[in-house]
Amino acid sequence: MRAFVLMLFTFAMTVSCCRDCELSYSPDIIPYPQEISLKGGTVDVSGAAICMAEDLDSLSKEYIDAFASDLSKVTAVEQGTGRSRICFRMDDSVPSADTIPFFKENQNYSIEISGRRILVKAGGLNGFIYAVQTLKQMLPVQIYGTEPAPEADWTLPCCTIKDSPRFGYRGMLLDVSRYFSSVDEVKKFLDMMEISKMNVFHWHLTDDQGWRVEIKKYPELTEKGSRRRHTLVGHHHVSKEYDGKPYGEGMWYTQDQIREVVRYAESKGITVIPEIDLPGHMMGALATYPHLGCTGGPYEVWGKWGVSDDVLCAGKEESYTFLRDVLDEICGLFPSEYVHIGGDECPKTRWENCPLCQAKISELGLKDDQRHSAEHYLQSHVMKQVAEFLAERGKKVICWEEALQGELAPGATVMAWRRNKYGHQAARLGHDAVMTTRTHLYLDRYQSEDKKNEPLAHSSYLPVSMVWSYDPFVSEDKDAEPLTQEQKLHIIGIQSNVWREYIPDNAHLEYMVCPRMAAVAEVQWLQPENKDWERFRRGLDRMRKVYDIMGYAYATHVWDEDQKPQ
Ligand code: ACM
Ligand code: ZN
User: If both were cysteines, with which of 68, 281, 360, 425 could 50 make a disulfide (CB 3.0 to 4.6 Å apart)?
Assistant: First the structure.
């Protein structure tokens, strides 16, 4: 009898919830859900049965199946033999924040953990992914591993979670031109994006230091344009020394590999936006096809960093043909509605002295005015031509903020990188903008003020706390009027950029990204009024164990120092 009473008591503790006792305990979830109300009690999920509604799409079903199989592996209890059920139901009515106009599919989800049932509702794949990620963060960290851990406490606290992202676009840029990442390394990067509930992978595929995407019509682009003779040693502001080692042979993606990455990302709810940076940052292409430059070269794939005066000639018809051909193949490879067409750091020196560029300026009737030079308007012409061509293929363009110097292509989304105010300027003009402001979101910056004891990095300092404190609506321009509510809706998202000039290998890449990426995720996802630094710090303590289990390198400064939000 005693045993029976004890059994009943244990049963009550493990599978039932006390609905009226709200707890102050908060789980260590990053990004933290918008709304979470905890009740007393827990539900044991070992051996939980999984039920999925018929109308779930196949990717959602696969994703949930994978979670179920991970769960039975780590709990060492066969699925369906336990007492609880985890049910996934399609529900478009899960409330949608009005601040996420970017992706049409529903990214919201709700979770109800009570009695013996965990009920997950979402409007599609992304919502289910985010719900599963939240559940994983509430379970023992061994869920991220592959080893059975039956000794861990496989219970979930009874609670109700209602969650939706602050921004529809939550991106990470990876530069694979300066230094390359293999397909497996890119997948590992995407895995961390998945944990961070991010949904856009901005793949910076071409630049002065190497062209890294196969274009069937121009095979020399990767055969020749991916290789450089040598690479600068040290910081580009001070060093003139090179390593003497060729770099880049075979370091490019075949079209099959691109498709593989796109499919992998899709299964994790991540859209891949390719970037072909133009008309500047094109030495990889110009070294291969010198006739596309104003002077005709010779050019070489750069082994140094910085901004090249040599850019695509905007006066030659061949340049436009080349861009159309390349982008035509890019459109076939990437299902994303958006294509990033660069537009940053394009000096006008060559165009000013190029008879063909000047002839184009005359032909188009472009003139200097008080705001910009005729050459700026020539760049606008290039961007607009490309945008028009892509629009015919059903695509929209994103371009760096320099596109504001002149005239933006109709419907172009602006990616602000130097200052918030450029994103705001785009929003005031009725264009969408993604904020990637370098002071807070460029993860190539130092993580410590003690630079001597750090690997070489971009010169400024960016601790986790500063990333976490980022506010996309603050303007550097003190006299600027705040954005109106309508203008704010044009700020569709936030993205962090990982430029690779000083990040040669993958372990170093992870060191630069983890744990700052967790702070990015929280800024992208969580409404500012719901942020809490101390809670985020506890979440990082847990995330550190996840990095250990999943084999990510990471920087420890946030644990070694007493960082505070700023
Ligand atoms: C950039 O950092 N040049 C976009
Ligand atoms: Zn020219």
Answer: 68
